[in-house]
Amino acid sequence: MTTSPRPSLLGAQLPAFYCPLQRDLLHPEAKQIEARAVEWVDSFGLYPDPVERAWGLATHSADFSCRIIPDGDVEAVLLFTEWNYWANAVDDWQDSGSDEVGAGAVVEHGVRLLRTIENPGASVLPEGPMTRSLVDLVRRTHAMLSAFELRRFAEGTRDWLLGAAWRAARAEAGRMPGLNDFVAMGPLANGTRFSMTWSDVARGGRLPVELLCSPALTALTDAAGFIVSADNDLFSYDKDDHLEPKEVNLVNVFAHQENCTPAEAVPPTVALRDRVMVLYLRLRARLAQGADDELRSYLEALDHYVAGCIAWQSQAPRYASPRNRYGLPVGEARFTIRFADVPSDAATEPPDLPALAAWWQWLRD
Known about the structure:
Shape: globular
Largest sheet: 2 strands, parallel
Order of helices and strands: EHHHHHHHHHHHHHHHEH
Strand content: under 5%
Radius of gyration: 20 Å
Strand order of the largest sheet: 1-2
């Protein structure tokens, strides 16, 4: 007799997603990119055995890459895809719950990884498949990216690693952060600038530095990152719901704050996410007024990032058949996705969260 996996603590199905953006786009060379990326993964022996390989490929990193960059240079999207397979292997190590993977280990590895990106010859990581494959990625990245793009990529990687280290430290201490702290620092682990750098590289995006780093466009980029992070906390919740102390994510932060169950924390999680989506759409429309082709391309890339992540996560066995419930990923596992026509919270004023409220100021005349 086959036993059914234990049910999700979030309820029978995920909430409806408010996402009035173009959806279901995919790079036309997605299959070729995936095949070449998997060949690269296997050439370095990135996964130590068939089981780990199955779970590594269940990340659907190629699908993620080809949905958030649905057009552009194949070689750049391929290199980005290989980075994502590698980064997800690191993420799985960080989320393993092993006693050896404390906050100190996450910080130690992160610092060494950053130094390797910035100085490939530093020799500060232990010998092995992960390091050899990383050195290959770094070498090819230095050859492909301009000096400014490389700096953006390093800063995006720093965001990811700092966010992951902060979450790990809070979990290790057994102290769930407050909501304002979480929305300020938790989404860093999503690595938005890591991904957006590669989107620009693949599309040949060349926004002037003054515009790319302007407060308004920075706020829009951060808002997109928050939405993707909130969505990931919903899609990935089951994957990490066995961990003690509890995983530091938006659902658990709300559950702790409201002293409620994870299922009861879903509505306020979605409400805050939708409120930021409303802000994103309004600010995006404002920035699009009179925008040149370069800025319009960047705004479209942010849309692909937000909408593409929903499509990718809904079909990735990593989330739809999580490892704490299945011995091997279920290849055809899927979430049933519903889309909402209206936001669950359509308020246009900023929330009472200083870490987010500043974004709304860029809507003013």
